[in-house]
Write a structure and sequence with these properties.
Blueprint: E1 20-23, E2 26-29, H1 33-44, H2 49-53, H3 66-73, H4 78-81, E3 86-88, E4 91-99, H5 104-115, E5 120-125, E6 131-136, H6 142-151, E7 155-158, H7 161-197, H8 206-227, H9 229-241, H10 247-267, H11 278-310, E8 316-321, E9 324-329, E10 338-341, E11 350-355, E12 358-361, H12 363-366, E13 372-374, E14 379-380, E15 385-386, E16 391-397, H13 403-416, H14 420-450, H15 452-465, H16 469-488, E17 491-493, H17 498-504, E18 507-510, H18 512-516, E19 517-528, H19 536-547, E20 567-572, E21 576-581, E22 584-589, H20 591-596, E23 614-618, E24 623-633, H21 637-646, E25 650-654, H22 659-669, E26 673-675, H23 680-692, E27 697-701, H24 707-712, E28 715-719, H25 724-728, E29 732-734, H26 739-775, H27 781-800
Parallel strand pairs: 18-25, 18-27, 25-26, 27-28, 28-29
Antiparallel strand pairs: 1-2, 3-4, 4-6, 4-7, 5-6, 8-9, 8-10, 10-16, 11-14, 11-16, 12-13, 12-15, 17-29, 19-24, 20-21, 21-22, 22-23, 23-24
Length: about 800
């Protein structure tokens, strides 16, 4: 019985199965839906001639069986998506792990085709980690994206750290095996070739030369058939995308050199003058695989940075239920639950302390190495470590919605997006491949007419030496290293352009409160009344006891611990507080409130020259004390401003606070440009006026009132204590609120830009220098293979310096 062959792979079409596609006006049969999907892509891209000119059937596509389709469709289940999908204003977001990527062309193909799906708002892939970030909305389903990636020859699935680590381990093992195959073949073939190159065996017998070549061919065959498979797969994907990727010349070089050498070995009489290139094929594949292995190791190291953060969430937590406790999986914690955190344990969710006090290590989130004191009502973040006493917290956000998880998502989003320098480098690499192939063609034609015996070797050298791998690696490796290093400093990049914008900024504008200052009041001076019987310490104790009854922000300045009991405490909203301490009623509040509740008072006692808030205390008869408060400048503010000046930045203060308060800060920090009592509209106008002069503006703020100006600035930086809305819209977040880290980040941005420029200049310079040398025949194929690999390694090692 005759069987019908599959038009794509040549295998027999199963009985009863029917799948056809019209190609060149004829319905062609396929053996499975996988082959049909690949053929649809090739036909859709206008590459029907691929089938007309092929010399053998294509490899069988990965078949998408109905069971596999159903498995992918399970990812559309809302219950399952709760584990890995986040929703914001109707937009769904998640990260995907993608396997099968080998070069920039793979990323280009995936991004182009998936971004074309209706409902996909943004799909971008991090070149260094192969981790994708996607945003979509209905009617699009996540399974559509996963199926599209599978049809293109890649495997995409929701990103999970432990699975990514296992996949990285598998990738490492197979790559090491490929390197071993290529390395053994290289060493063996060079044993035969080097003596011939050096002319040591001019009197070799013909049969011995033939034996050497046959052995070399068999040694090189596994390199071509197995070790070099990743290059071929990437080249085929480039053909599908109608874009010339960097693996195209690599694949051509390996296949053509091997086939030509095999033909010479099989059909001609072996002589020392007849050239074969089995050694060059093996060496080329070996060094290229070795270079990509080092790049892969760097990528896996960046992957481990994410894993370390994910491991900060404990697997279990202790749930408090009345007088009893029980353990439960952290992912099952719900808002409103009370969980107990013992000494040395990690917080499994965000929450507020119900009772007790302790110190927490928040270094993993903020970079702050000193433990932070926490007491009843204070916020605890998931992933932070309890250093001292056991406490109970009431959960305000689950592990998935915690600050730690949001940081992980922001990092993934920032790393997946591409800055302009990377886009330029990728485009340059694509154009350069076209140029290389044209140069190879012209070189072959020229040398065929000049010296046909050398034409093939010289053309092969041109093809090998000019591989643009280094050019495509120039930007992503540098950006990934910089992002990782800055996060360790407590500076989180949330938008892809942040590093570029930092290096280009001319002006840095600070809000005052909560930015240059700590955003909380403290007592700067206590002035006792002349006729009071209290000393300063007692006055502070009484004041702290009274203010403990108030929720006003000023009350937080009186943080002294006291056991003094206040009887009949009253909170006079907007005015002050009162209560009985040790049998006497005391009043504490504004000048007007004290004036109304003090029988014998000289009004001059209420007058003062202090720039900040002042709180008065009386015993109902006479004034007891005056407390002068101030918003304390951050200790590192002066050092930060000085560093920014040294970097050539112009520093401004733009604040809504009163003029005398802003002027005091500006004078202290020697900042000449400042504006006070500014509304959000006025702040926005000021930034726009600077931008109209061609200035690049960076804005540092923390309040919702700063949102308009933050959105308008070329770079927006939010403090770690800023509102969630402010941080959501910022390009970067200063997690630890240390202004020294901000100054370091600006310095780092300049250093990163320098490294990127170095990488691009090196990659372009190397190719421009080596190409003419290869064209004139001064570079043998084996040396071309070594030089190409070393150029990529130099770029990777140069970028790794940014991690230090």
């Amino acid at each position: 019985m005759m069987t019908t062959p599959c038009f794509h792979c040549g295998e027999a079409v199963p009985a009863g199965f029917s799948a056809t596609l019209k190609i060149k006006g004829k319905n062609e049969p396929f053996c499975c839906y996988g082959c049909l999907a690949v053929a649809e892509v090739i036909s859709h891209e206008g590459l029907d001639n691929f089938y007309a000119h092929r010399t053998e059937f294509s490899p069988k596509a990965e078949e998408l069986k109905p069971s596999e389709l159903k498995q992918l469709e399970l990812y559309d289940d809302p219950l399952l998506q709760e584990e890995f999908v986040q929703a914001h204003d109707g937009v769904l977001q998640t990260s995907l792990s993608i396997s099968g990527i080998t070069c920039a062309a793979c990323i280009w193909l995936l991004e182009r085709d998936i971004n074309a799906i209706d409902g996909v708002l943004n799909f971008s892939i991090n070149h260094s980690t192969h981790k994708a970030y996607i945003e979509w909305e209905t009617p699009c389903q996540l399974s559509e994206v996963l199926i599209k990636a599978r049809k293109l020859g890649y495997n995409a699935k929701p990103y999970r750290h432990h699975e990514a680590k296992l996949a990285a381990l598998r990738e490492k093992r197979i790559t090491v095996f490929r390197i071993a195959v290529a390395g053994i073949a290289t060493m063996q073939n060079m044993m035969f070739s080097i003596p011939l190159y050096l002319g040591m065996y001019n009197d070799l017998d013909t049969q011995l030369i033939s034996l050497f070549r046959w052995v070399s061919m068999f040694m090189a065959a596994p390199v071509v058939a197995f070790a070099s498979l990743p290059f071929y797969r990437a080249a085929i994907r480039s053909l599908k995308s109608r874009k010339l990727g960097m693996d195209m010349p690599v694949s051509f070089a390996i296949i053509i050199a091997f086939l030509a050498s095999s033909y010479t070995t099989i059909t001609t009489v072996p002589t020392l003058e007849s050239d074969v290139y089995f050694d060059s094929v093996s060496m080329f594949a070996f060094f290229l695989l070795l270079g990509r292995f080092i790049e892969m190791q760097t990528r896996h190291r960046y992957l481990n940075d994410d894993v370390d953060m994910d491991q900060l969430l404990p697997e279990t937590a202790t749930l408090v239920e009345g007088d009893s406790t029980k353990s439960l999986v952290s992912q099952r914690i719900q808002v409103g639950d009370i969980i107990r955190i013992k000494q040395g344990e990690l917080a499994a969710a965000d929450g507020l302390i119900e009772n007790g006090s302790t110190r927490f290590d928040e270094s993993a989130l903020t970079g702050e190495f000193l433990p932070i004191y926490k007491a009843t009502g204070d916020v605890i973040h998931a992933g932070t470590a309890n250093m001292d006493n056991t406490i109970d917290i009431r959960v305000t956000a689950s592990a998935k919605q915690s600050r730690l998880s949001s940081i992980v998502r922001l990092i993934g989003k920032a790393q997946a997006a591409k800055p302009s320098t990377q886009t330029i480098a990728d485009n340059l690499a694509s154009y350069f491949v076209t140029f290389v192939l044209l140069a190879c063609g012209l070189t072959a034609v020229y040398w065929w007419n000049i010296d046909s015996d050398r034409a093939f070797a010289i053309t092969l050298s041109v093809l090998v030496v000019t591989c643009p791998c280094a050019l495509s690696l120039a930007t992503p490796t540098a950006l990934t290293g910089a992002t990782s290093a800055l996060r360790r400093l407590g500076f989180l990049l949330t938008k892809h352009h942040a590093l570029e914008a930092m290096s280009q900024a001319n002006d840095v504008i600070f809000d005052k409160t909560g930015t240059l200052s700590e955003g909380r009041l403290s007592i700067s001076h206590v002035q006792l009344a002349t006729n009071t019987n209290l000393d300063k310490e007692t006055a502070l104790i009484f004041a702290s006891a009274l203010e403990r009854q108030s929720a006003h922000p000023i009350a937080k300045a009186f943080i002294q611990q006291t056991s003094k009991e206040v009887i009949d405490a009253k909170n006079h909203v907007g005015l002050g507080v009162s209560g009985i301490i040790d049998g006497s009623r005391y009043f504490m509040g504004s000048a007007s409130f004290i004036g109304q509740n003090t029988s014998t008072l000289d009004k001059q006692e209420l007058q003062h020259q202090h720039d900040g808030p002042v709180v008065f205390m009386s015993d109902g008869t006479t004034l007891v004390a005056r407390f002068e408060l101030e918003d304390t400048l951050r200790e590192e503010a002066a050092a930060c401003i000085e560093t920014l000046r040294k970097l050539g930045k112009t520093v401004h203060i733009l604040s809504g606070d009163q003029h005398h308060s802003v002027k005091h800060v500006a004078d202290t920090l020697s900042i000449e440009s400042f504006l006070a009592e500014q509304s959000p509209e006025q702040k926005l106008n000021y930034v726009e006026s600077l931008q109209s002069e061609g200035r690049k503006v960076a804005m540092v703020g923390d309040g919702i009132n700063d949102l308009p100006v933050l959105s308008r600035a070329n770079l927006s930086i939010a403090m770690g204590g800023a509102s969630d809305l402010t941080k959501l819209n910022a390009d970067a977040i200063l997690l630890n609120e240390h202004l020294v880290s901000l100054a370091d980040a600006f310095q780092y941005s300049r250093r990163t830009r320098t490294v990127i420029i170095q990488n691009i200049c090196w990659a372009l310079g190397y190719n421009l220098c080596m190409l003419p040398l290869a064209v004139v025949g001064l570079i043998p194929p084996y040396f071309a293979a070594l030089g190409m690999s070393l150029s990529s390694l130099i770029v990777v090692f140069n970028s790794m310096r940014l991690r230090k």
